């Protein structure tokens, strides 16, 4: 689990990122979770945007994405989810 200090650090890092995934009408599926896991391995920190037409609420989406990809949920802000997972091969972020 992340400490408050680590979450603050990650939120500041994520501020400048653009979302690279969108959750829409179809909701969360296995293929999306697989792609998000791969993106997390490559980048460690990603943003996912939830579109207006998404049927599930943002907390449900965030929970299923973080559990499916075994990532830490850093923050949910508006329709944006920030996920972090330490990379095995491309370690770029050093947590405080």
From TrEMBL:
Keywords, A to Z, come to:
RNA-binding
The record, for Pfam families, names: CRS1_YhbY
Q: Where's the CRM domain?
A: 1-96
Q: Which residues form the signal peptide?
A: none
| Any GO MF annotation of the entry | RNA binding
Q: Which InterPro entries match?
A: RNA-binding_CRM (IPR001890), RNA-binding_domain (IPR051925), RNA-binding_YhbY (IPR017924), YhbY-like_sf (IPR035920)
- UniProt superkingdom: Bacteria
Protein name listed in UniProt? Ribosome assembly RNA-binding protein YhbY
Q: What organism does the UniProt record list as the source?
A: Heyndrickxia sporothermodurans
Gene that this polypeptide is encoded by: yhbY
């Amino acid at each position: 689990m992340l400490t408050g200090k680590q979450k603050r650090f990650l939120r500041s890092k994520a501020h400048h990122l653009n979302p690279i995934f969108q959750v829409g009408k179809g909701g969360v599926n296995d293929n999306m979770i697989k792609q998000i896991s791969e993106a997390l391995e490559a980048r460690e920190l990603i943003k996912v945007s939830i579109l207006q037409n998404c049927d599930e609420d943002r907390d449900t989406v965030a929970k299923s994405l973080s559990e499916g990809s075994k990532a830490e949920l850093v923050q949910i802000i508006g329709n944006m989810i920030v996920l972090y997972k330490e990379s095995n091969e491309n370690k770029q972020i050093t947590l405080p």
